[in-house]
TrEMBL record:
GO molecular function: ATP binding; kinase activity; metal ion binding; pyruvate, phosphate dikinase activity
Source organism (scientific name): Acidilobus saccharovorans (strain DSM 16705 / JCM 18335 / VKM B-2471 / 345-15)
Keyword ATP-binding: yes
Organism superkingdom: Archaea
Keywords: ATP-binding, Coiled coil, Kinase, Magnesium, Metal-binding, Nucleotide-binding, Pyruvate, Transferase
Protein name stated in the entry: pyruvate, phosphate dikinase
Coiled-coil ranges (or none): 697-746
EC top class, as a word: transferase
Chain ranges of the Pyruvate phosphate dikinase AMP/ATP-binding domain: 19-357, 372-425
A matching Pfam family: PPDK_N
Length: 972
């Protein structure tokens, strides 16, 4: 054979090599090799796809970067045209089609069928895509390939079912036209709808007697042109259906002729074009968008394989069918078979949601032996793969075939529950279970649900396809969803059924609602994969795209109206309903306990108010790693007191105002320390520039001008008392304005803030420390166990620490100890958020008990970026153009900021072996950053309360990966 090394039989391919075979090819190879019934076939590897693109790769990479900017639809479509024009210039690798032809000839020998046969049994194949990572519905597949005007007659004769043969042919022509020839599908859909409506009318009238007879045996039957009537019960209806399908085949071929040319009759021409089309689908806009949105990089999945598989048919009659089987319930995780079965149908009918499928119980009732074989094989695959499996199958005339298996896309609850239960069943170790759950799924498990106290009646009910409750304004077009979301609007995308091309609308929307489809429809799968609430198959909803409305039970909902969907129950409500956050517990609690046993990193919370502190404690935080006192100053009387401190004319006046302010905020410190009793609370001394607490000069100037106008009117009217009163107010505001102007800085974020305030005004740091210390002392006297840690921000030189310690912090602690008669064991530390602090960590470490990396400011300082400015101005372009791989404010910059963390941690601990090191920036809740901090020797991370469970799991995964020698991403 002319082997290129690019084509492999299922039985010879190493199914563990998903990068080479793609997930679908690997699963077909695996199932073949463990003895499951798989239609014979072969895999064209991802290496062939890379060779296909190699000549134009640089140009296409640049166009893909432009798509990352999510341009308007018109621009997006032009970019796609350019990409596809480049693809048309790409050639299949040398020798590939010769290799494929020889494999097809061998496939003929193995199956006893002939490719494109005019007599005998014709060999038909599916040409299926498959990347290394599951990208549901994002790439293309062609079914029934090999049919032409001659082989369709041979198929009819061989199967003794002319209806089936011509139905397969019309499906093939339409799919080939849409996917391979890239023709507009609307004329084909319109033609089908006309014929199907005609058939339904005639069935209900001319053939009413036969229709009634069918419904007695098959209650789920509806007269559709794509569902074969049972010939033995309804011979006339069957014959009429066949006539209409043959007419439709002719119309389809005419459409292809008008838009492209004669429909290709040579099966090898069909095959070559289909292979090119599957390769091309790697660069479909929806596939590109999916990779961007899910951060799928080339090292994770690079190009698609092509799987050429002998066709088996679920639409040969009522002893045939197709379905999807989950080895456990993908919504709840319960260990019970879950799935959907559609008799007398092909797989595309299930995924597209064009017919409502039945449950697996129906398969069990109709074909018990097939059902038992399916369940047994599913459990075997679950044991081999150590995961809950999603299995596609087809039944052809009572014989079961397996077409694909992959790890199931599950709801967060189901993923956690199944991982825990599989440990108890002995299928997984605790370490393996921890690696099965993506930390982000833990966050999704805390998604809001509709407040149970709300009394609301749903207007419709569908299937609860993806959890969470979401409210938004109704839109019917995915492009509109994107545009409305850009304007800051919350939207719910409403569709009859979704297609892969709609995926950009999924990401823009708060949730998705469809009137058709099941739990394994495209909408359900994608929504679960990206964590969006979804309700599918709400069949009572009638959608009119032209008028941009939907109606249900006499209610009309227009575009822009608010609705709420509940992906937990499948209910749809009018208006915006309040939601609540669920409690931790059950399986998640058990999983997180295992995580706590494995992780080395501590996990604390960033919390500024009592509600945050209570939430953090509930979610398992081991303390507060950052309490920013600035929020305590937002109450009007406190803000006014702080302004008096800032504007004080001398130290004596400043001290009087500061003492007053300290008395105001002491109860807040006491409450926070009490909530976290026995756990550390790190309180940061005042950090923002002082001008942030003052009115703006523009605001004051406007007030002064307004008062002057009032004065002129009072003077003109002769109101001397009013003039005097206004003169006094103007003088006061003028003085305040002059003071504010004097305090203004050219670059306030690098000016008079943080420790510099403590150096210039030690009295501020003294009384802030005193308020904290008095709160702790009072709690000690009440029998509590407060653990106070004081943190100094914005340090860049060790002498700054020495100064504020000796002139403010230590005197305040000493004074409180004497006055209250208690011993305060207070740790004093600093934020490492300036580059110089990181580089001089060995000096600073000798003066403090702990470091806490403020990675937000450290990132700004390292890059010389202002976060607010770069996010709005050029960060997206940096990411699109590949200048930066990730937003450094989302995931820590390992080479720059990370290097500083490593230096400061290592040198700080060498200088002070008792030094504790934490991270309190937003990176403390990012799983990828947590993995880095684990390796950098950090002792704990601190995250927002809702990210505490995420951090607990991510920290455990970092430890497990280190122990097992695993590199790279974990979870789904």
């Amino acid at each position: 054979m002319a082997r290129t090394g690019l084509v492999l039989w299922f039985e010879e391919a190493d199914w563990r090599d998903k990068k080479l075979l793609g997930g679908k090819g690997a699963s077909l190879a695996q199932m073949t090799q463990i003895g499951l019934p798989v239609p014979p076939g072969f895999i064209i590897t991802t290496e062939a796809c890379r060779k296909f693109y190699s000549s134009r790769k640089a140009e296409m990479d640049e166009l893909e970067r432009q798509l990352r900017g999510n341009p308007p639809p018109a621009v997006r479509d032009e970019i796609i045209k350019k990409i596809w024009a480049l693809i048309d210039q790409c050639d299949l690798p040398a020798g590939l089609m010769e290799d494929v032809r020889e494999h097809m000839q061998e496939l003929e020998r193995r199956t006893g069928k002939k490719f494109g046969a005019a007599d005998g049994i014709p060999l038909l194949v599916s040409v299926r895509s498959g990347a290394a990572l599951s990208m549901p519905g994002m790439m293309d597949t062609v079914l029934n390939l090999g049919l032409n005007d001659n082989s369709v007659q041979a198929l009819a004769k061989a199967t003794n079912n002319e209806w089936f043969a011509y139905d397969a042919y019309r499906r093939f022509i339409q799919m080939f036209a849409r996917i391979v020839l890239a023709l507009d599908e609307k004329p084909f859909n319109d033609a089908f709808d006309r014929k199907s409506e005609q058939f339904a009318r005639e069935a209900e009238t001319t053939y009413k007697d036969e229709l009634d007879a069918i419904r007695k045996l098959y209650p789920e039957y509806t007269p559709r042109l794509d569902a074969q009537p049972p010939k033995d019960i309804a011979p006339r209806l069957w014959a009429r259906s066949l006539e209409l399908i043959k007419e439709l085949v002719g119309e389809y071929k005419d459409l292809v002729r008008k838009m492209w040319g004669e429909f290709p009759q040579d099966p090898y021409v069909q095959l070559e074009l289909a292979i090119r089309a599957v390769f091309r689908s790697w660069m479909n806009p929806r596939a590109i968008f999916y990779r961007i949105a899910n951060n799928i990089t080339p090292d994770m999945a690079d190009c698609t394989a092509v799987n050429v598989v002998t066709m088996v048919f679920g639409n040969m009659g009522w002893d045939s069918g197709t379905g999807v089987y989950f080895t456990r319930d993908q919504s709840t995780g319960e260990d019970r078979p879950y799935g959907e079965f559609l008799p007398n149908a092909q797989g595309e009918d299930v995924v597209a949601g064009i017919r409502t499928p039945l449950g697996l119980d129906e398969l069990k009732k109709r074909m018990p032996e097939v059902y038992n074989q399916l369940i047994e094989a599913g459990k075997k695959l679950e044991q081999v793969n150590k995961d809950v499996m999603d299995i596609e199958f087809t039944v052809e005339r009572g014989k079961l075939y397996f077409l694909q298996n992959r790890p199931a896309k599950m709801t967060p609850l189901a993923r956690v529950r199944s991982a825990v239960e599989m440990v108890k069943e002995g299928l997984l170790t605790k370490e393996e279970a921890l690696l099965k759950v993506d930390p982000e799924q833990v966050r999704r498990l805390l998604y809001p649900t509709i407040d149970p106290k709300v009394k609301a009646t749903p207007i419709a009910k569908g299937l609860p396809a993806s959890p969470g409750a979401a409210s938004g304004q109704v839109v019917f077009n995915p492009d509109d969803a994107v545009e409305w979301a850009k304007q800051g609007k919350k939207v719910i995308l409403v569709r009859v059924e979704t297609k892969p091309d709609d995926v950009h609308g999924f990401y823009a929307a708060q949730g998705v609602l469809t009137s058709r489809g099941g739990m394994t429809s495209h909408a359900a799968i994608v929504a679960r994969a990206i964590g969006k609430p979804a309700v599918v198959g709400a069949e009572a909803i009638k959608i009119d795209y032209d008028s941009k409305t939907f109606t249900v039970n006499g209610v009309t909902v227009k575009e822009g109206d608010w609705v709420t969907i509940d992906g937990n129950s499948g209910s749809v409500y009018l208006g915006e309903l309040p939601t609540v956050t669920p409690e931790l517990g059950g399986w998640l609690d058990e999983l997180l306990k295992w995580a706590d046993e494995e992780r080395r990193l501590g996990v604390r919370a960033n919390a500024d108010v009592p509600e945050d502190a209570m939430m953090a404690r509930k979610f398992g935080a081991e303390g507060i790693g950052l309490l920013r006192i600035e929020r305590m100053f937002r109450k009007p009387e406190r803000l006014e007191a702080l302004r008096r401190v800032i504007l004080a004319a001398d130290d004596k006046e400043r001290e009087a105002h500061m003492k007053e302010l300290a008395d105001m905020i002491k109860p807040d410190f006491k409450e926070m320390l009490d909530i976290m009793d026995g756990k550390p609370v790190v309180i940061r001394l005042i950090d923002p520039p002082l001008h942030e607490f003052l009115p703006s000069s523009e605001e004051l100037l406007a007030q002064i001008y307004d008062l002057r106008e009032q004065r002129e009117k009072a003077q003109a009217s002769g109101d001397a008392a009013k003039v005097k009163e206004l003169d006094q107010k103007i003088a006061e505001l003028q003085g305040l304005y002059n003071r504010v102007k004097a305090l203004q800085e050219a670059n306030p974020m690098m000016g008079h803030r943080g420790v510099r305030v403590g150096v210039t005004y030690p009295v501020i740091y003294y009384y802030l420390t005193r308020a904290m210390a008095e709160a702790a002392a009072e709690l000690i006297k009440e029998g509590k166990r407060p653990v106070l840690e004081i943190m100094v921000p914005q340090v860049s030189d060790v002498n700054e620490i020495r100064f504020v310690k000796n002139n403010a912090i230590l005197p305040a602690l000493s004074d409180v100890e004497k006055e209250y008669g208690v011993k305060l064991n207070v740790k004093i530390g600093t934020m490492i958020e300036t580059v110089r602090a990181a580089l001089t960590a060995s000096e600073i470490a000798k003066e403090v008990d702990f470091f806490s990396f403020g990675t937000n400011d450290l990132t700004q300082a390292t890059f010389s970026f202002s976060r607010d400015d770069v996010e709005n101005k050029f960060m997206n372009q940096y990411l699109e153009k590949g200048i930066l791989a990730n937003d450094p404010f989302d995931t820590v910059d390992v080479k720059g900021v990370g290097r500083l963390v490593e230096i400061a941690t290592k040198e700080g601990k060498e200088a002070n072996p008792k030094l504790e090191v934490g991270v309190c920036g937003e990176h403390g809740g990012d799983p990828a950053s947590i993995n880095f901090f684990h390796g950098a020797g950090v002792d704990y991370v601190s995250a927002s309360p809702f990210r505490v469970p995420v951090a607990r799991l991510a920290a455990a995964q970092a430890a497990v990966k280190e122990k097992l020698g695993i590199r790279g991403a974990v979870g789904e």
